[in-house]
Structure prediction request, 576 residues.
Amino acid sequence: MSQSTLLDTLERLRSLPREAATVEFKSNLDRAEEIGQYISALANSAVLEGHDRAWVVWGIEDGTHAVKGTTFDPFSRKEGNQALIMWLQQMTTPHADFVFHAVDHPDGRVVMLEIHPPRSAPIAFQKLRYIRIDSHKTRLSDHSDKEARLWAMLGQKDDWSGDLVPDATLDDLAPEAVDAARKRFTEYLLKSESDPARHDQIRAEAAAWDVPMLLNKARITKLGKVTRSALLLLGNDEAVHFLSPADAKISWILRDNRNRTESSQHFSIPLLLSTDKVYGRVRNVTIEHMPDGTLFPTAIPRYDAWVMREALHNCIAHQDYRLGGKINVVEYPDRLVFSNLGQFIPPSVEWMLEHQSPPEHYRNQWLIEGMIRLRMIDQVGSGIRRMFETQRERFFPLPDYAFDTSEQGHPRVEVAITGQVLDVRYTQLLMKRSDLELHQVLLLDQVQKHRTLSPESVRELKALKLIEGRSPNFFISAKVADWVGQKANYIRTRGLDDRYYRQLVVEYLQKYGQATRQELDALILPKLPDVLDATQRAHKVKNLLQAMRRLGLIHPEGPRSLAVWRSGPGQPKTLG
Prediction:
């Protein structure tokens, strides 16, 4: 904006009778956190008010709106070692669109912060979303009515994936994809039925359904009419034109350690079948895990198959197809990078890990419902946490999420899965401390990747004696030498032991039908290594049973204090 335009805007704002939902006057406020909160609150309020701009103005006296001038200088101000403006950008999710202006008013220097409203998701600052109530900023989550209206105005309830495609018919679906959908939906129904006596009946009923009934029940079509989801998951390649301008492709790209492309291949619809083809192209070689000389190396695949598929299927489920981009799977020598276009709608990855439940709003709700029933993704909200837990159990670095913009300027979500050990001390520490909470493991993962931690996180890890060093050069504690020496035999036999213990439990349940936790303790505890203390032995049994439950080998029944364990996956949780 020119100085004359800014002065005109300033006079218009000063003429307001009082501060509004999208206008805030300040004198010399320079607390970075509060400025970030105002950006979130005013940007979100601009959507609700239907305004194309929101403003924070420094150098104006509140009440009289007289120009007093300000000493605040956002252009030279730093937050830590970083420029304030860049810091504010990085602390907002999705990245807020704002600009600072310096205005030379006759009565004093004025600074104006011009804030644009978001277009796809409410703005969060440091993982919290704010809103203006009268002239006060407050958390958006405390005002559910405004939050619901805000999401509706941002268009998240317009489900592109559930729209009907008028000219498409069931003949535009690939027969082999429909057959695969029948098999997978039958598996979904069997998993949802706890009574094994009904399984044969379910199989017979599913086999007898005609295609319209099958796809209606699986939430793929609507009353026999083809949706965009149906074409994405099951459509013939020749029917891809119905989805234009969406680019319904998955690109696999192989790059060397200098980022040069060595090979590539593109896969179109039906995506239900294309994901297995992409998976087949990834060079998931066997590697020697635990390269430290004190640990016995174990041969395992570089990438966990479930984690790979979950990451890819999440890209399909959450891609914003209206932006016209494709899904990418880029394979580097040491990692896989999955990316899709669109804002990351939950407040943050940490929020998802903590809450273990889906946010209230999702893009492509119809597509997600169908993918759940075709067993492409877990119940909504649990997949991300399971990816992190699986990498933790493998003692590998945790998934890395990044939120950026594509070359076309569209928002993009990227997740990288590392296929090698980065820091042996991290691996050793996870082996030693199976009692760590997932958020603590996440913080340790940030340390091994040399990321910046908050002061609160540093205090927590230091109190647990998990890290050493001084800010910003922290490193994972090396005080595990005595543990390695004492427990080397336990580590060497860990993989064999887990298989052995699982077999003990399975054989016991096959013979006796059920077991209490006390009976399983009596079965397993005597066979654990002597180097483990009582607490570690209890954690070992607990982790073993939970891992077997996730694998579908066993399940608990009854209230926790009186629960018994039986064979099989049990009754799954349903969408709530």
